[in-house]
Amino acid sequence: MKYGAITIDPETMSCTPVFTGTRVPVTFLFDYLQGSSVEEFLENYLTVSREQVFAVLETTKLLLQREEYLHENFA
After folding, report:
1. Residue 13 half-sphere exposure, CB side, CA atoms within 13 Å?
2. Residue 7: is it exposed, middle or buried by C-beta count within 10 angstroms (0-12/13-18/19+)?
3. CA-CA distance, 5 to 35, in Å (whole number)?
């Protein structure tokens, strides 16, 4: 299934969420942000666009802001 900048497909990385059109797992971005920058991430993963990075960050922010999501998954 494609969710904008994120794709989850059994044929691509065994359903690991990846940046659409790549085989780069979305979690790699968050790993980079813990100790580095978006710029360094983009330098190392040339198949991912700046627009995709910010779309993933925005999607994550919206999910975390949804009260029912937080309640169902973390309460």
Report:
1. 16
2. buried
3. 23
pLDDT in 10s for each residue of the chain, 75 residues: 888 899 999 999 999 999 999 999 999 999 999 999 999 999 999 999 999 999 999 988 887 777 665 566 555
CA distances from 29 to 6, 25, 49, 69, 71 (A): 12, 8, 12, 22, 25
**What is the three-class DSSP state of 18?**
strand
Q: State the pTM of this model.
A: 0.79
- The two three-digit tokens of residue 26, written as one number: 């979305």
Question: How many Cβ atoms from other residues are within 10 Å of residue 53's Cβ?
Answer: 21
